[in-house]
Design goal:
about 150 residues, alpha+beta, Arc Repressor Mutant, subunit A, Alpha-Beta Plaits, 5 helices, elongated
Amino acid sequence: MTLDTVDKKLVALLQSNSKQTNKELSVKLNLSVTAVYERIKKLEREGIIKKYVALIDTTKVDKGFVVFCHLKLVQHTKEFLTQFEKEVIQLSEVLECHHVSGDYDYILKVMVKDMTEYREFLVTKLTTLQHIGSTQSTFMISEVKNTTVVSF
């Protein structure tokens, strides 16, 4: 689906605050409430808008320790990749998992309370997954940029 200028503005408005009413959006876009509603439904049907979420201040819920964990698998067979991905998806501490090229096979973004909790996660959960050859952990010092906004 190709987005027109109005769709792009609508998506930008929703990304900045998805709790805006269709009435508020209609005023900002100079469209009728019905037209805004129909455009949003079309964006949802087409899968451009996948879901609506609440973004959490992780420091206020004791989950401010972020680790980027680089993983190598012992082999790169389809079976090993599929099994690893199936297992890592189940780990609630893992916010993101990316299959990458280069020295490592995967990069995980892990969020926990502190170093003690990360060690517990590493020892009791992550390294018990099948087919992991090695890991390397990189700890976040500070967050410079973190956004969910896709710009057009």
